[in-house]
């Protein structure tokens, strides 16, 4: 191949180029370089080759353009167009009378046409690719000529050919390889500073820019940067440059350009090209500040600083007086703290370069006129932002000022910082503390000692005792930062003990930070952490604080109590000393010491030492035994994951030792620790402990209210499950529950007999038993029933806890004793519900365990699709049973037959009802109770009615809740509201055309609105706002339920929405009407005797109504249905002659919900139907009233409705009557 090329090269340039193109670009490329670089200046080809190149390139480009035009006309989109290869075929006119044979012939012709078009297209593409390959060869030949080692080719001779390629770059926009080759050629021409290089940039530079933005490769950014001097040749004021300017501005938001140093240098270079480009670039940077990441903003800061440094005249003025001044002002008056911080990152590019000539003066000129004034304004956000800026630019000084002026300005800055340390705004105090420590850290050497002492004293004495948590936290963090300057150590060593009280701070973050401070000073020479915080205080925190703080304190104490520099035996002795000194702290120390660097071998030795210490005859207190066993259990938990150490622990523990350990463990905590050791290390040898474990879980008085006992019982459960004793435990539970259930039946029968006997004597009966978990007594002396009952509460809690955790629930559900336990819980739950109104306190653990067990049993034995499953029916029976019991209690409470109802009894009932409602929701969520939705809705309505009734009693003074009882009750009420709304949501979701929505759902929505009203009216605005937080999420469901009846039955009568209401007309509609009238009176300054008064401001309900209006106006179909419901309510008011209700509701509908003047009534068919019933009755009622307040309310109501009546209903009725008359 090379010989053939060499011979053609000797012949002529034209033959050489022809041969090269025939051989193909890839195959001929290596040979071309060798042959061209071997040419001597005396060769004839040196002079003829440039001319031939220009001729061949020109011909190829012309051919390519011609092929492209042919491709456009002969492409697939124009199959019938003319072509240079074949003439167009004549198209046959279609006719429906052609024979089937003709149709088949035509289909064949059409297929031939399509096939011919595809063939032509393929030929065109092949011809174009051949031309492109030729141009690649020519371009490479020129490149080799340009890079010839001897420079034998004249640049002026080659320029026409290169110019031809460059000027047609746009023509080859789809040929990426050829474009890259031409761009490389132009780039090489520019680098070598060859003649005519200025004419080779207009097309190549936009291509390189576009490529760098598209492909996002670093090499392309490098190439653009190398071309930067060429940009000076462009006229950026000319309109034709807009496309290039857009590419340049796009580079400002390219992550690659911002990341690379060459990219940032190039972007800074652009600022010197044109003032208009400077403006556009700065505007782009400004637009990116609110959204930019830290790295992006820092890149912009570097770019602007480089641009400012290189700029002169108008460009520098634009950067200083326009951009930077706006940045300073914006950093002070930013709308948010994050936005201000982003702006300060831009300014940081100058602040970090303040040693550069002119920067210090620039910062002073920009900041000084605004910063001191802003530090003293009323707006706290402005003061905070200005303080941030002052700390960043500190010390702000004029380099041209005298020494006295500089000192005065410095004292002014310190004075303002000290003043802001006592600012009213906590956020400002936080910034002031952190900023003061930063300034002291950075400029300790130049700050007068008096100011240093003053600032540190104020921070440690005042800010460390600040009422705001964040200020105290910033104090600790600031001191930690200040310790980074060694010159501060001398003074801080003396004053740091003033921070010691923060180890007991109520805020977790502050306690954690103070331990971080202790860890820091532990590594500083001449500092002693125990002089800052006493060791006893540290041990107390280690014992009682959260795990993270405990782990940090362990890290702090590890070198003292478990060092690696001494023998393991001595380390164990130190650790034992720690446990004896503070048992719980020592146990926590053993929990974290492995993760903080203690060796497993040493911990294994420590475990043996602790076990031997418990079993030894030495005098060890019970508290110390608790700590030792807990420490041993923690060590086991850490080492058991490694087989080697687990085996060593097994060898240490024998059955005899286990019994001895359990015998030595006198407290529940110690026994739970032994169980934990056994379950982790030796579950197979734990049979000797079974009876002891059963005692622990069977006698758990007060378990449901004691978190510590709960943790202990869970450890015992863990051991029982690991040892396979779960069936034995549940059998014991079932026996104890059955015994309690039998006692409940006997007690209930006794009380009923006593009540029947005493009722004949007309004497009040005070209930003989007040079941209380808090107190282990009844009215009278102790009885075995009360002991059994209290024990059953702990068992019920354990069943609930076991069922809630997946790892234990499976084991529980396999037990054969569950049925017996379930039936016993059923009896006890009924006893709780029936008797709760007679008790001062009752626990809901029985009811929760009963419902949870019913749910799990149903889920275990059934599938969601099996509606007739026996277990599903049992679930519905559970709901029915609980609902019946509870409703019976509601009725008894309402009739007051049970004697005086107390706030405690109401709290009991609310707790139990909330648990039942929670169970209903869980059942419905699992798709279990669609068939008994009506029953669930009815129960929920009864419950809401019970709450409203008793809230009214509390407001009237018949029930006087203590604040603590009221808070507990309200938390249950808030949960109950959520559950009731969730039930409504589930009912709405499952309602289809085949199963229409129950009217009870509509009524429940009304009841829930009434509940919001009642809570705000009877408990106050504070509780009203709290219930609003729960109600907001469910308002769409409540609103949909209000209008659902009208959506399902649009032809229903006007009063159908209220036909099913058992608790009377909805209170919230009455209140809504009164609010509308009250607001009208306030706006009109009405002083008449007929003024409407409100029992409360109803600020919460007003917010609910505002949200309701906003939601309804966003959905026209729901608006139509709810509006029809409201109009039905106004019709009820008209019939009852309650004209205030009529007036208020109509004012709300016509003035706030739907406005006639905007034509919003046109598509509201349901509302217009309701209005068609309402308006004639209003006209009929008007003449019957005399002149008075009622007549005035009715007339005003008619004035709102009449335009709507005439616009939409009257005309339609008139037209219909005329049509009927014509038909007749």
UniProtKB/TrEMBL annotation:
InterPro entries: ARM-like, ARM-type_fold, Condensin2_G2. It comes from Tagetes erecta. The lineage of its organism: Eukaryota, Viridiplantae, Streptophyta, Embryophyta, Tracheophyta. GO terms for biological process: mitotic sister chromatid segregation. Residues 68-121 are annotated as: Disordered. This is Condensin-2 complex subunit G2. Residues 97-106 have a biased composition (Basic and acidic residues). It comes from the Eukaryota. It holds the Pfam family Condensin2nSMC. Residues 73-87 have a biased composition (Polar residues). One of its GO terms (cellular component) is nucleus.
